[in-house]
Amino acid sequence: MIIICHYDEIALKGKNRDYFEKKLVENIDNRLRKEFSENNFWKVRKLAGRIVVEIKKDLEIEKEKLLILKEVFGIVNFSFALESAQDIEELKKTCGELLADEVFDSFRITASRADKNFPLTSQEINKEIGAFIWEKTKAQVKLKDAQTECFIELANRRAFVYVDKIQGAGGLPVGSGGRVLALLSGGIDSPVAAYYILKRGARVDFIHFHSLPYTSMASNEKVLALAQELSKFQGRAKVFMVPFAKI
């Protein structure tokens, strides 16, 4: 199994882009390690403007368990893909296999050719694969609002084919923007603010001013629950509970 992860803001970072890409690779790897006790079945690497997660071929993992990647800031979308040889006939075969389980009346082929060594242009790939799928299905080709869109990406002498893009959290990788301390009051505004700080790449610890024994433990427990929920976007975080009653 191959997972193709795309980013957007990182691509605008110029000379610092490599730093942000490495941080995203690190965060993806750490999130998978946190989720799976057996941590030797994947590799995460950069590949020509995208991040590729390679799962061992002989290992079966439910895709639902890998949806945790939606919690990794920096990923704008990701897809479960099949890998193919960089050969037009092999690409036809792989696309046919991928679409065999899909039900559709209209479709679109969208090729992206980062590897310019491939002899066909993106438009020529679209036409070749589109004609092949039409012959097999007789479904209508629609460039707008097609029921199914098949994506083909060619990069570094490798080719990937997929149909669905799963929305990610976007933003920048956590840890790429320093460390901050965010107030958690127990209301809705403070956790939302902390979420958006995380999205800008900062690592966040939390502070809460409590009024025990004049308030119940329920308030503190709520804050700890909020901190735990936010921490899934960054791993570990510290929570500072400050007694405020005497003041």
What secondary-structure arrangement, pairings included, does this model have?
Layout: E1 2-6, H1 17-35, E2 42-46, E3 51-55, E4 77-84, H2 88-99, E5 106-113, H3 122-137, E6 140-141, E7 148-155, E8 158-162, E9 166-167, E10 179-183, H4 189-199, E11 203-210, H5 217-231, E12 239-243
Parallel strand pairs: 5-6, 5-7, 10-11, 11-12
Antiparallel strand pairs: 1-3, 1-4, 2-3, 4-8, 4-9, 7-8
Helix pairs in contact: 2-3
Brief description of this entry?
The chain is an alpha/beta fold and 247 residues long. It is built from five helices and twelve strands. The protein has two domains: 2-167, VC0802-like (2-Layer Sandwich), CATH 3.30.2130; 179-243, HUPs (Rossmann fold, 3-Layer(aba) Sandwich), CATH 3.40.50.
How does this model look, in words?
This protein is α/β, with parallel strands linked by helices and 247 residues long. The protein folds into two domains: 2-167, VC0802-like, CATH 3.30.2130.30; 179-243, 3-Layer(aba) Sandwich (Rossmann fold). The chain has five helices and twelve strands. It has helices at residues 17-35, 88-99, 122-137, 189-199, 217-231; strands spanning 2-6, 42-46, 51-55, 77-84, 106-113, 140-141, 148-155, 158-162, 166-167, 179-183, 203-210, 239-243. Helix 2 packs across helix 3. The longest helix has 19 residues, at 17-35. The mean pLDDT is 92.
